[in-house]
Specification:
- Chains A, B: One of its GO terms (biological process) is lactate catabolic process.
- 2 copies of one chain form a homodimer.
- Chain A has 17 helices and 20 strands.
- Chain A is α+β, with helices and mostly antiparallel strands.
- The first copy, chain A, has 3 domains: 102 residues, Uridine Diphospho-n-acetylenolpyruvylglucosamine Reductase, domain 2; 120 residues, Uridine Diphospho-n-acetylenolpyruvylglucosamine Reductase, domain 3 (2-Layer Sandwich); 198 residues, Vanillyl-alcohol Oxidase, Chain A, domain 3, CATH 3.40.462.
- In chain A, a hairpin with a 5-residue loop joins β8 and β9.
Chain lengths: 479, 479
């Protein structure tokens, strides 16, 4: 009885020819230069800076880089590019990891670094409105006086627009959620240049389709995010943080599962394997024991933080972990978390001179120990150096093979390892990326994860909202 | 420079003629009867039961009601209806409030009440997978032995599928979020009968477009939700609940703002105005003082619940509220929340024999006191009886004019009041519905809330995913 009457996947009626013709590029560049003056840059150096992020994909520079200052200017740029069928790629701070902002078909890179206004802070409502180019550290600097914070912390000092576009999360997500949970509303420029406000400042709504969540995580392929309304949180009255060694990955994961299951509102719970700890010790000049560790943080009142940390200590001990050492001073805590945040660089310290190929997967937490342990065995069997760090409260972990990109055999070995990692995560009911996003490098895994029908729906959405395929083409989906 | 090159709003190429011809209905009904036997019902009584919910919209019965037992059967039904251009309307428990399941163009109602399987409970991962017809109380009954709960509680014992489709929330949302936050993944049948799984059981993902959130809140207009993967929570070790009288709406709202701002993790914080309390006293035989009240609940450990309740008592006292009376026994707590949940019926006790016209709005919490107070003055000036209850931690409140539907003048007066209520909420930065959804009655407010460009995007999505407009036509959007 299965008779598809009106198949969803209609061919794109009006897709632009990619890459665009030199004539189209020329027309767009001239018009932008006339409007934007020296905020339109076509020098090779600047184009190359925008054609490559922290990834092993070769540099793919755009044809021009433009620096708008308002949503209306972004709309003007997109409208112009739409007329000429020229790609537009939004650029935040260039810290994405899977080739999100490289420009495989050239086009115009929209650099958001001059959109830095904190438009409003509504302390009573625990929300704020910012332009897309504000970074998370800049925002927290701005908020501190008011006792407020924006907790989402992917490590890098990424822009809020980029974090929304990649559905970023990081160390605090186990308690505060990801960008999907912390964006109340967006302003975005659609493929025809129209400006859309997706929602209001109300904490919840049932008023129509959730355009906010459709754009969060769409990596600039459905619209260009220009302003974001974010949830904020009060800076906790008390914070306690500490490190706890474990005899094995399994012991650390089991302690994490019980911590989460028992409802302890842990703010951060991070696993670093012994290889990563060795890198951290080198890079951050720490003297941590080189074994599997959990870095943990609790937020609350003095009394509740004390209660939480005692409970966690008991749980850790049950699994052979400990001693659980607390950093009670703010500066010791900062040092600890700085070391965790620097894990990307610490990993590189393990094999100076080669490239780091960071990637991530996420599995149901019950599968985490198995997934990490199998992955470690795989790393060893592959002869790779690849430290592991993970936001284990969410079942999300990263590995970072250190690869000599001039050696094709080693590159192939690393690629094959990542493919096995993704297949392992999918077989365990997980996802090919917990927080890095798809970019170019994870495109090939989406059908295995979501199935053919879901990919048809995703392509249908992309074709409906960007019929010319000019918004960050070549990312997330093959059309 | 604003030259829309590729406008998003293309006309629907293949929209079905609505209502469908008797021949089409006949063909579909015969084919369904052949496949489903006595699970296909066309009696007027059953059709009318499915053509009306708790709303003042007149009964709009479907042409037939079918009771599938699996996702594949739903797919078969939708495929058949797609061939014949016949509308399909998903039906949960019929407790929606804005005319979501009425069938203005006839068609086939898919009643999910025989899809009651709890497919899996993953206690370690704090998630479960259920068929769409499982109700929240049935699920909690199933989970209790394992010390787990599903906290989202809209009052009615709604189906999980219906709650996902309307992006429901309710009393616990201030702590646990809404359906948008608690659905990890969905299985849905799309307009062509294809079956889509939107995501995995991983706690977070950045793997492509967020089809889960696109379907949550789409009210059966983009796909029919058949299975849901839900986040679960451990039943808290300790729960404390109590009631606290306040001298005014403003005092109660101000105490709520400070409670939220200071990071007290309140699980429920509900405002009932003095009119609603009068109804509750009548309906639930309670002897509460007839003034503005907050009903409050805290979840946590014994120590943290004690700390939270003491803090709340201090905050309430600062605003002239109190005394704060605690129900420490589970049975007293149940009685209290049963009374709150019965508010819909309690309100009706204030004017027996007429209809209740429940509606809701949601505003930034800083605007809540003004919005509720202006609304109360408006109620008085309008000569209506309309008690107010609200999930004030989220800025969301309900009012429930009691209206004699046989009196056109009174109906017009109530309609005009609701229109002013919505405009007031929008002017304060809020939304026309916090949790009830759009259905038929809120369609006219969406453009004022979202703007014309956002409505173009919503219509584009609808046309792309349901080119024939057969999925719950006449809801959310005018095409």
């Amino acid at each position: 009885m299965n008779l598809p009457a009106a198949a969803l996947h209609e061919p794109p009626a009006s897709a632009a020819k990619l890459p665009p013709s030199p004539t189209s590029i020329d027309a767009v560049t001239r018009a932008l230069a006339a409007s934007f003056g020296n905020r339109l840059v076509t020098s090779l150096a600047v184009r190359q800076q925008h054609g490559h992020t922290l990834t092993w994909i070769p540099n793919q520079p755009p044809d021009a880089v433009v620096f708008p200052q308002s949503t209306q200017e972004v709309s003007d740029i997109v409208s112009l590019c739409a007329v000429h069928g020229v790609p537009v790629i939004a650029f935040g701070t260039g810290t994405s990891l899977e080739g999100h902002v490289n420009a495989p078909f050239g086009g115009v890179c929209i650099d958001m670094s001059q959109m830095k206004a904190v438009i409003a802070v509504h302390a009573e409502d625990l929300d704020c409105v910012v332009q897309a180019g504000v970074t998370r550290k800049e925002l927290n600097e701005h908020l501190r006086d008011q006792g407020l914070m924006f907790p989402i912390d992917p490590g890098a000092d990424a822009s809020i627009g980029g974090m929304a576009a990649t559905r970023a999360s990081g160390t605090n997500a186990v308690r505060y959620g990801t960008m999907k949970d912390n964006v109340l509303a967006l302003t975005a420029v659609m493929a025809d240049g129209s400006i859309v406000k997706t929602s209001t400042r109300a904490r919840k709504t049932s008023a129509g389709y959730d355009l906010t969540r459709l754009l969060v995580g769409s990596e600039g392929t459905l619209g260009i995010i220009t302003e974001i309304t974010l949830k904020l949180h009060g800076i906790p009255e008390a914070i306690s943080a500490g490190v706890c060694p474990f005899p094995s990955v399994k012991a650390a994961c089991d302690a994490t599962i019980i911590t989460i299951q028992s409802g302890l509102p842990v703010a951060r719970i991070e696993l670093l394997d012994e290889v990563m700890i060795r890198g951290v010790n080198i890079h951050s000049k720490l003297g941590l024991p080189e074994t599997v560790m959990l870095f943990v943080e609790f937020h609350g009142t003095e009394a509740s933080v004390k209660e939480q940390s005692e409970r966690f200590g008991e749980i850790a001990a049950e699994f052979g972990g400990g001693p659980f050492e607390w950093a009670t001073k703010a500066e010791d805590r900062s040092k600890l978390w700085q070391a965790r945040h620097d894990a990307y660089w610490a990993a590189r310290a393990l094999r100076p001179g080669v490239e780091s190929v960071a990637t991530d997967v996420c599995v149901p937490i019950s599968q985490l120990a198995d997934c990490v342990e199998e992955t470690k065995r795989d790393i060893e069997a592959s002869g790779l150096i690849a430290p592991i760090a993970g936001h284990v409260g969410d079942g999300n972990f990263h590995t970072q093979p250190l690869v000599d990109l001039t050696d094709p055999e080693e590159v192939a070995r690393a690629e094959a390892f990542i493919e096995r990692l993704v297949k392992r995560a999918l077989a365990m009911g997980g996802t090919c990326t917990g927080e890095h996003g798809v970019g170019q490098k994870k495109i090939k895994y989406l059908e295995a994860e979501h199935g053919a029908s879901a990919l048809v729906v995703m392509r249908t959405l992309k074709r409906a909202l960007d019929p010319q395929n000019i918004l960050n083409p070549g990312k997330i989906l093959v059309l």
